[in-house]
């Protein structure tokens, strides 16, 4: 029952982006930096590796341009990513996983990521319903919900 309630809560918090149905958006309660700090802590707490944290707004400022707060976290777990790349070497173009925290024009902060099933769907070699795809999907859902304050 608890899993069903959590799944419903996640589904209610995840909103498909207008630009693409493949992008999952999760409304966050804090600012971009705090949300990304929470995501990074959740990722590390789950035993995954953080490979990079990119501050897009700082990069823009470095060339005298403005950009709303926006940060990207690149992270992964070889136990999930390696089987995907064993099935389809081109999965390495999409892995490790990435989550973007950004502030929209109204000042709302969002976490966004591409659905792993959609991301790997056209590669050939990745079987429908692959266990690692479902695990990636579940991990992204849990991690972003935790970072969003849910």
Automatic annotation (TrEMBL):
Q: Which InterPro entries match?
A: DUF302 (IPR005180), TT1751-like_sf (IPR035923)
Keyword Signal listed: yes
Task: Indicate the segments forming the DUF302 domain, all copies.
Answer: 54-116
Pfam family name, one: DUF302
The cross-references to Gene3D superfamilies, in alphabetical order and at most eight, read:
TT1751-like domain
Q: Which SUPFAM superfamilies match?
A: TT1751-like
For this UniProt record, give its keywords in alphabetical order, as a comma-separated list.
Signal
Q: Where is the signal peptide?
A: 1-19
> From what superkingdom does this record's organism come?
Bacteria
Name of the molecule in the record: Uncharacterized conserved protein, DUF302 family
Native source species: Cribrihabitans marinus
Q: Supply the source organism's classification.
A: Bacteria, Pseudomonadati, Pseudomonadota, Alphaproteobacteria, Rhodobacterales
